[in-house]
Structures
1.
Amino acid sequence: KLVSREFKQENSVIDVGGVKIGGPEPVVMAGPCAVESMDQLMEAAQAVAEGGAQFLRGGAYKPRTSPYDFQGMAEDGLQMLRKAADKFSLKVVTEVLDQRTVEEVAEYTDVLQIGARNMQNFQLLKEVGRAGRPVLLKRGLCATIKEWLNAAEYVMSSGCDDVIFCERGIRTYETYTRNTLDLSAVVAVKELSHLPIIVDPSHGTGRRSMVSPMAKAAIAAGADGLIIEVHPHPEVALCDGDQSLTPEEFKKVMAEIKRMSAIL
Ligand code: PEP
Ligand code: MN
């Protein structure tokens, strides 16, 4: 299989316009759960850039559990993401929810994100594989490592060599945390595949207090980077405020990660 270590022994390094994912330095993607307004996004982008992240994250198309919750700003949101990211020399990563918008999202973003809920949407996986952009493939809510690797195989066999895994927690019997962050998946994926893997401690825990400790644990476990939710005013966030770091909290954890990766 294309994703496997047997197929390719050396680690793949994915170059996104000069930002190397899978190289010696951890790559950090950060920003709000959802794009809410130009003001919110500009403030977030500034904080993310000042903290030293390389990517601005934010959803313009949101896969919400309830149809009555905020669904995202669609193409307006994509335009805002591009504008805010360019202003602070950041790359963009954003989710594509649906086959019909792959081309549209690919026009604005540097990396196409496949969310946990779509990890086994095979038609979508094939379509993003043909879109000419690197793909961030989040682990499904209940996906085994093998199912996840097979999802990446769909993307790769459609013509995309640049797949980045993202561990974002899985559903277990535990309800204290939003999900159970499986950091052993970092080691497993690295044993089984040459592709890079990053960790999402925000969705992985659902709790602001746990984001920094789990971010550091992920780097210690060998993750190639992180994706972290940061909101300039989490208390009024339209989505996932409880797990979003403030700009100050984000800068603190970034400084800690920098010191950690210097000794690893
Ligand atoms: C996200 O990162 O915006 C998101 C919706 O995460 P997940 O697909 O992991 O739930
Ligand atoms: Mn979120």
2.
Amino acid sequence: MKAIINTDASNTISKIDNRIYGSFIEQLGRAVYTGIYQPAHSEADEEGFRKDVIKAVKSLHVPLIRYPGGNFLSQYKWEDGIGPKDQRPTRLDIAWRELETNQFGLHEFMHWSKKVGAVPNMAVNLGTRGIQEAADLVEYCNFPSGTKLSDLRVKNGDPKPFAIKTWCLGNEMDGPWEIGTKTASEYAHLANETAKAMKQVDDSIELVACGSSSLDNPTFGTWEETVLDECYDNVDYLSLHRYYGYYGDDDPTELDNFLAKNEDLDQFISGVVAMCDAVQARKRSSKQINLSFDEWNVWYHSNDADTKIKPWQVGPHLLEDVYNFEDALLVGSLLMTLLKHADRVKIACLAQLVNVIAPIMTDTDGGVWLQSIYYPFMQMATYGHGVVLNSSVDVPTYNSRQFKNVPLMDSVTIYNKDANELIVFAENKSQRENADLSINPTGFDIDHIVEATQFYGYDVKADNRDGKMAIRPLTSVELTGENISAKLEPLSWNMIRMA
Ligand code: AHR
């Protein structure tokens, strides 16, 4: 198969907001306890954070981390996680039916996120709590000092304000599973009043309102419209959540369908953008609402195992999906799809980061291992900076069970002016054919290949528990004049950096 990418420096989609490479830590399962925080582990630092995990997170180059949930959020009291650890209460986490010891809380998260080089995307509980508790949390975190709550932060060891900029107004408030789920109009009113109060405390913050927690929720569409109608002037982003699974092991063509699920993500984003813009037009507003895709990933492997977990444990093995090679290919395509919407998707969070549906896993008594999905994400988060180009891509397409006209090679082209680099991420979705790729760049001064890599050659069901998966050099890449050619193996993830 032939694949041609024609790309022109003057034809751009958008500058990339680096927060599109964000992730998520929820107080759930082993994300925190025996994940990022394990004081008794040989790798623990002076604050109890695992240094091996910090190293793996830093190598992933995640710039923003959402916290503390997730479903956990909608029943959480942030005050339980501050102050002397021996005085913090153990509580029932009634969202996940775990025990929460609160040994890790707000200050620990702020210290840990600094150590991994990320900024927080903090969330306030609008399930069981409301306006006052949210405003109190902003005061505690962001007010310099001289008030009861800001002085309490100082007393608890952090004299400088946390200066948290981005805040989520609740989590999945449309979901029937959520503690304190709301109708669209109930949520819209509470979110708007909470937004007003939080911005009264600190008018430099920006706020994310809950959109639909899935494209499949029956209220999708009317939810967005109702929420934006009421909150438009006081919020900055609308959230989207979406998880994908592989549901058809007995069907030999299901892999083609699974690898095309980024088409669904694309439609979801386009639909929500259209809804935001319809409300903007109706309101005759000059303000544009952007998107925070603050939960996305593959999630299905652990579903059965999770039904067998005994309730009321600390740090149970919940949502521990072990990802295989086909998952890595889909995650690559999903992130490319987010980038192709970089004009509107300003924040996105791979859900999640450690142990819970995560690229990074820990052995409680051992080390860290990296899942298959770590690799495409890490390459894009490390090198995918600058502007996304509006390239024209000429490639054959295929039809799958759910999707029509799916390009056999998915790609995104990025120009990093600061590094003077043109970067192509490309995935060959064909199970049988090579993609003979030609890249024709116009308006760039390219004279060498900085790096070309390929991730391929694994059984689609293979995972990385043995740690053998690796990114290898792409040896077939050639530069002739300004034109670049490369042979992309069937089912391969590729990165070509040129300068
Ligand atoms: O990320 C796991 C869960 O998925 C989150 O707690 C929730 O927001 C979503 O349903």
